[in-house]
Specification:
408 residues, alpha/beta, Rossmann fold, Alpha-Beta Plaits, 6-stranded mixed beta sheet, 4-stranded parallel beta sheet, 17 helices
Length: 408
């Protein structure tokens, strides 16, 4: 029998401790995603927590176990955002002073929300590791209790309550797919899931740029870095305690790229009408990227959080429309005479296209004096519709080139 540093009993105790103080989020079957993935797909909507992230679970489980003297001294944490909000919110509820050190790249929405919960926020460093070093320095200087985001048995047990609830709501699940940052959530979920159902598969998901757990499990040197839309799991280091658990309990870890994560964010909004941040959408991204790994199985996806900057979300959605061929830019060479623009608009309108933007160029790009380049951005139904638009414009006497999106 394997002896684990965090057990199913620890997770059950955490569940009892935090009951009624965090949201028991729904775990629901997605008919559409099941059809797309050729699997039975269930989603655990942790973006419906008050702070829009699963991090509340571990944070509260830890704070509730502090001594009266530790509560009086106050706590400090380092976080790219969601752990910060979880600690800040529940520390504020419990009357515990909280300081949060966040990397400089943390999205504004997460900084603002963390401050809104009453915590003192310090922005420091270009990486989570640099923010962590500053948090440890301040903890020693001010005698604050350090609340680690993932390398702590109390945190791991708290996060494990996610899987506990998933298997209560959907006991038939045979595979859990969980995003991986520092490893706390997947370690806790693996402890709970394998404790309840030893035959269940637990699969972790990392970004291509931050695949530390996958590399460590393969006994490879860790190489991590770069920009990612999934900043919540952009963690260079895996915690020692989570790694010890993952080494024993995980089936495998897969990596997904930025385009796959963007596609998953857009799909969750379009299909499930729910907002996911990059890290939260990683589990669905894995399902879409490696369908053969999941086909025919009963899959539980952890949608871990929904804290995404609105400007970034808008960009992701628009980029997705371009990739899907639902927004396209067409370049036409027209003669410089009255009625040409109206003729183009009429043809596009009759073909069912919706003009979003028009740019009229006479001065640059080698255009002759009696001609002009017309760039028209058009909303379309699908890829095939682009071909209909191009054919219609060509029949009207225009030379057309597809500049962006899917070639007709």
């Amino acid at each position: 029998m394997i002896t684990l540093p965090v057990t199913l009993d620890d997770v059950r105790a955490a569940a009892g401790r935090i009951a009624g103080e965090v949201v028991r989020t729904p775990c629901l079957r997605s008919e559409t995603l099941s059809r797309i993935a050729r699997a039975d797909v269930w989603i655990k909507f942790e973006n419906l927590q008050f702070t829009a992230s699963f991090k509340e679970r571990g944070a509260l489980n830890t704070l509730l176990q502090l001594t009266p003297e530790e509560r009086k001294r106050g706590v400090i944490a380092m976080s790219a955002g969601n752990h910060a909000q979880g600690v800040a919110y529940h520390a504020g509820r419990l009357g515990i002073p909280a300081t949060i050190v966040m990397p400089s790249f943390t999205p504004n929405t997460k900084v603002t929300h963390t401050r809104g919960h009453g915590a003192h926020v310090v922005l420091h460093g270009d990486t989570l590791a640099e923010a962590g070093a500053e948090a440890h320095r301040l903890a020693a200087e001010r005698k604050l209790v350090f609340v680690h985001p993932y390398d702590d048995a109390r945190i791991i047990a708290g996060q494990g309550t996610i899987a506990l609830e998933m298997l209560q709501d959907a006991p038939e699940l045979d595979t859990l797919v969980v995003p991986v940052g520092g490893g706390g959530m997947i370690a806790g979920c693996a402890v709970a899931a394998r404790g309840l159902k030893p035959e269940i598969r637990v699969i972790g998901v990392e970004t291509m740029g931050y695949s530390a757990l996958r590399q460590l499990l393969a006994h490879q040197p860790v190489q991590a870095g770069g920009d990612t839309i999934a900043e919540g799991i952009a963690v260079r280091d895996i915690g020692k305690l989570p790694f010890a658990l993952c080494e024993k309990l995980l089936d495998r870890v897969v990596s997904v790229d930025e385009v796959e994560i963007e596609h998953a964010i857009a799909l969750l909004l379009e299909v499930e009408k729910t907002v996911a941040e990059g890290a939260g959408a990683a589990s669905l991204a894995a399902l879409l990227a490696q369908p053969d790994l999941f086909a025919g199985r009963k899959i539980g996806l952890v949608l871990s959080g929904g804290n995404i900057d609105t400007r970034l979300l808008a960009s992701v959605l628009m980029r997705g429309l371009v990739r899907d061929g639902r927004i396209v830019r067409l370049r036409l060479r027209i003669t410089d005479q009255p009625g040409q623009l109206a003729k183009v608009a009429t043809i596009i309108g009759k073909a069912g296209g919706n003009i979003v933007e028009v740019q009229h160029g006479r001065l640059f790009g080698g255009v002759v004096a009696k001609a002009a380049d017309l760039d028209v951005t058009v909303e379309t139904r699908d890829r095939a519709h682009i071909g209909e638009l191009v054919a219609g414009l060509q029949a009207g006497g225009f030379t057309v080139r597809v500049l962006e999106g899917v070639e007709a």
